[in-house]
């Protein structure tokens, strides 16, 4: 498998990386198709599928009526009879319309049927705030789905992972929800040409450090890296772990890092209450790595409010590199207990 | 899949469905079965009539009231009985139960506990058939209550826009639990809705097997030859309560009695006697054979082993 940084790969955007994964999969596998609102000539609301209908035709890049439940169900049915559907839900907020099909159908059929079927469905959806689009076009609902056994949930933060994980999702026999972030689409990174996969369920250490572990995923992984950079100037070395996959969740990799650092800060964009960070922290403190912790873990998350429209208000309630820096500093500067 | 070229096969299957659900009702009453069950007794002509128009390779989805659909499609009585009893040898190895019986490989894409939950799924199967240029048809069974759900509209619109080989079969048994169609619809003529989506809609007497077969054949053949979807409304009636726990307080004895007098099995027997396919008085022998078959299936299933507790943790992911 090509490594992220040691090749002379081209730089392309996250958007292009996702598109390239879809194109490669569709070229090599007739059963793969893309379906969603405006994915055809329009190219998708965020331009991810631009140009694809020209190559693959309307039969495989399918503009749907405004029927999120209907076409998600269609994806489930097509998957059941041997197709490899990619369903694009235009904004992740609209995934609420798909809940029955994802929670009661896609995730459950295999189990209810006693393992006698599987649903290889991929659902791609742009989530996240920071665009000033207010409460119904800015949410991060990924944690809802990690609560549902039978689904896999991934949230790639780099173009490299976006391509490799989508290709892996398209080979996976289970339903996979891919949470993309609107603000990532224009970000550039090294991406090899051709097919490669990044395994689902494996975290990635994107920066090594001794003092604090920062675990994050998705767009705010960039905030973690920015914060780590800033903290390094004041002599604090952060290890940044990009989970990439929320279900399955590679808490073992985070635990390993904590063995080294003794401190954990989770950075997540979804609201704090019952967010995926709560799950990660629980796993850490109920496991052996509890004893490796010098401090209680900290969470930098979205506030428990809908996303406000006003840009300043929005920034106020979202994570930021500054909030990550503050959280790390408070953990590092806290008085150490008398016995340690 | 069951082959209905012999008319007696249709009679046997209707009886099998009835015997099966009567047995299930009895087992619930005796406390020998847990969970819940929704009985198909009275509606037999719909499943058998529609499925007799299908051929190998076609697929169906059932509903929470799915025993009839599964049996009409040709699923095995013993494996169904075992599933209802939660046994390892059941269709879903004890993980699905009454509302989730499936044989995806054979084309029975599952009964569904969510009202209207399979209406998108059936479009997906049909979409795949069309795209792969396969000569196959998908049939979706659902009740009148399902017509009130949002995905009904989404599914019919998609199927019509893309001319998918789907036949939507509404089993209008007059009630969604306690809600009568007259209380649930301002316009209770369900087949008329087809017009709004741009597909043919037909109402048929769901107590008359031969008529259901004719209407089904036309719709299935049209779908198979690229003519697109259709909405069939079969007027029928469930003799028993909505589920095992229904006290039936919302309908009268008289009403139930009237429908029972219009019994689909009775009417088909008269038809068979006329065509000479069944001798007068010949019903008794067929009944005996089928009721024995069902009795033996449940007896066998009762003695089958329980699934291993650890198997509860398997089959979440492929
Ligand atoms: C989405 C959903 N809502 C409600 C229910 C509870 N429920 C189960 S069956 C039923 C009535 C369904 O009526 P209909 O679709 O006419 O089918 P029938 O039971 O008459 O065969 C209801 C309300 C459910 N299972 N799923």
List keywords for this structure.
heterodimer; A: 340 residues; alpha/beta; seven-stranded mixed sheet; five-stranded mixed sheet; 12 helices; 19% strand; globular; B: 318 residues; five-stranded parallel sheet; two-stranded antiparallel ribbon; 7 strands; binds thiamine diphosphate
Share of β-strand residues of chain B: 5-15%
Sheet with the most strands, sense and barrel status of chain A: 7 strands, mixed
Helix and strand element order of chain A? EHEHEHEHHEHEHEEEEHEEHEHEHH
Small molecules held by this entry: thiamine diphosphate
Report the helical percentage of chain B.
40-55%
Strand order of the largest sheet of chain A: 3-2-4-5-7-6-12
Instruction: Give the N-to-C terminal Cα separation of chain B.
Output: 27 Å
**Structural class determined from secondary elements of chain B:** alpha/beta
Radius of gyration of chain B using CA atoms only: 19 Å
Give the biggest sheet of chain B. 5 strands, parallel
Count of helices of chain A? 12
The count of DSSP E runs of length 2 or more, i.e. the number of strands of chain A, is: 14
Output the strand order for the largest sheet of chain B.
1-2-3-7-6
* Structural class by sheet pairing and helices of chain A: alpha/beta
Q: What is the chain-wise order of helices and strands of chain B? A: HHEHHHEHEEEHHEHEHHH
How large is the count of helical segments of chain B?
A: 12
Ends of chain A: how far apart?
42 Å
What overall form of chain A do the CA principal axes indicate? globular
Q: Which percent range describes the beta-strand content of chain A?
A: 15-25%
Mean pLDDT metric of chain A: 95
Approximate helicity band of chain A: 25-40%
């Amino acid at each position: 498998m090509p490594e992220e940084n040691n090749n002379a790969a081209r730089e392309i955007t996250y958007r292009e990386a996702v598109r390239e994964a879809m194109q490669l999969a569709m070229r090599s596998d007739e059963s793969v198709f893309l379906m969603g609102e405006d994915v055809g000539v329009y190219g998708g609301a965020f331009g991810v599928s631009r140009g694809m209908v020209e190559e693959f035709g309307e039969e495989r890049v399918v503009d749907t009526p405004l029927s999120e439940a209907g076409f998600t169900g269609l994806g489930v049915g097509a998957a059941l009879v041997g197709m490899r559907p990619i369903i694009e839900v235009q904004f992740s907020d609209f995934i609420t319309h798909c809940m029955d099909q994802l929670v009661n159908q896609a995730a459950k059929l295999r189990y209810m049927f006693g393992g006698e079927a599987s649903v290889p469905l991929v659902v791609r959806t742009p989530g996240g705030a920071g665009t000033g689009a207010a409460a119904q076009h800015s949410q991060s609902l990924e944690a809802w789905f990690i609560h549902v056994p039978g689904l896999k949930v991934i949230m790639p933060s780099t173009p490299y992972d976006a391509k490799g994980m989508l290709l892996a999702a398209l080979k996976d026999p289970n339903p996979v929800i891919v949470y993309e972030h609107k603000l990532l689409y224009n970000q550039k990174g090294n991406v090899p040409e051709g097919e490669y996969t990044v395994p689902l369920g494996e975290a990635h250490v994107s920066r090594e450090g001794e003092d604090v572990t920062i675990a994050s995923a998705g767009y705010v992984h960039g905030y973690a890296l920015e914060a780590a950079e800033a903290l390094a100037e004041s002599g604090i070395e952060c290890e940044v772990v990009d989970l990439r996959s929320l279900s399955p969740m590679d808490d073992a990799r985070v635990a390993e890092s904590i063995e080294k650092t003794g401190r954990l800060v989770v950075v997540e964009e979804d609201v704090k209450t019952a967010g995926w960070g709560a799950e990660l922290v629980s796993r850490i403190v109920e496991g052996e790595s509890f004893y490796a912790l010098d401090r209680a873990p900290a969470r930098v998350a979205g506030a428990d409010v809908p996303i406000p429209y006003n840009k300043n208000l929005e920034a106020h309630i979202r994570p930021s590199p500054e909030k990550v820096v503050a959280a790390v500093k408070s953990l590092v500067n806290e008085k150490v207990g008398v016995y340690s | 899949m069951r082959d209905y070229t012999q008319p007696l096969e249709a009679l046997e299957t209707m009886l099998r469905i009835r015997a099966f659900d009567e047995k299930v009702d009895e087992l619930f009453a005796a406390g020998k079965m847990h969970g819940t069950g929704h009985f198909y007794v009275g509606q037999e002509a719909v499943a058998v009539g529609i499925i007799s128009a299908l051929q190998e390779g076609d697929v169906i989805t059932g509903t929470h009231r799915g025993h009839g659909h599964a049996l009409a499609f040709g699923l095995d009585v013993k494996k169904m009985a075992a599933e209802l009893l939660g046994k390892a040898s059941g269709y879903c190895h004890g993980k699905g139960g009454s509302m989730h019986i499936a044989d995806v490989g054979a084309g029975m894409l599952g009964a569904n506990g969510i009202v209207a939950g399979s209406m998108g799924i059936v479009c997906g199967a049909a979409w795949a058939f069309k795209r792969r240029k396969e000569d196959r048809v998908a049939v979706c069974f659902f009740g009148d209550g399902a017509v009130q759900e949002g995905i009904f509209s989404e599914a019919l619109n998609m199927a019509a826009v893309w001319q998918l080989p789907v036949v939507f079969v509404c089993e209008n048994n007059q009630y969604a639990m306690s809600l009568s169609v007259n209380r649930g619809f301002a316009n209770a003529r369900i087949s008329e809705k087809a017009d709004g989506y741009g597909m043919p809609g037909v109402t048929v007497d769901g107590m008359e097997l031969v008529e259901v077969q004719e209407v089904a054949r036309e719709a299935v053949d049209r779908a198979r030859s690229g003519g697109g979807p259709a909405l069939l409304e079969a007027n029928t009636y469930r003799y028993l309560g909505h589920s095992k726990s229904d006290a039936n307080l919302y309908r009268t004895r008289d009403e139930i009695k009237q429908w029972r007098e219009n019994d689909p099995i009775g009417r088909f027997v008269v038809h068979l006697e006329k065509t000479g396919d069944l001798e007068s008085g010949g019903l008794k022998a067929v009944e005996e054979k089928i009721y024995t078959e069902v009795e033996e299936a449940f007896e066998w299933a009762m003695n089958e082993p329980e699934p291993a507790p650890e198997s509860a943790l398997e089959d979440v992911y492929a």
